[in-house]
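Design job #97: recover the sequence.
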């Protein structure tokens, strides 16, 4: 009888973490924020760790599967995290677009420290992006150029690249 109660408690913990992960990830269905990916990932990780620990303790025959799933999650999470981090590289098309929006677009009224604003303005000017008539057209041209050249990772020549993204962009 004791084993049955232990299983019920473990199942309750697993479902609790799954519910917490779902609740944490739900806002991402409405508004994706790559920079906040850590928050829902934390809940998913905790749910997987709880489930894995429960399976490890209750089902010794499944231990190789649990170990394999852990390795898969660690490697996949590291790869995905590194890939998404490239969105924030200063020469990523996404970062260039964001910076254009913050300096010349719909977020131009945002408070940006003067030194950072000057640095971003100089960087964008070096890429041919300036305030005035539709600066995002130049961003789109840079994206098309990067796609045509197959630049999907940062390069040593300092040119804009179009990062591998999990969703459509432009």
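Job complete. Output follows.
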């Amino acid at each position: 009888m004791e084993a049955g109660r232990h299983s019920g408690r473990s199942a309750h913990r697993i479902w609790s973490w799954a519910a917490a992960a779902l609740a944490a990830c739900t806002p991402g269905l409405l508004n994706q924020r790559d920079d906040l990916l850590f928050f829902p990932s934390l809940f998913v990780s905790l749910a997987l760790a709880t489930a894995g620990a429960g399976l490890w303790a209750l089902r010794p025959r499944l231990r190789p599967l649990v170990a394999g799933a852990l390795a898969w999650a660690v490697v996949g999470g590291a790869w995905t995290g590194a890939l998404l981090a490239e969105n924030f590289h200063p020469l990523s098309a996404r970062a260039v677009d964001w910076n254009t929006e913050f300096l010349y677009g719909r977020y131009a009224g945002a408070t940006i420290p003067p030194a950072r604003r000057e640095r971003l303005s100089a960087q964008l000017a070096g890429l041919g992006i300036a305030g005035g008539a539709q600066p995002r057209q130049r961003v789109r041209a840079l994206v098309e150029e990067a796609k045509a050249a197959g630049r999907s990772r940062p390069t040593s020549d300092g040119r804009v690249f179009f990062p591998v993204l999990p969703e459509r962009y432009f």
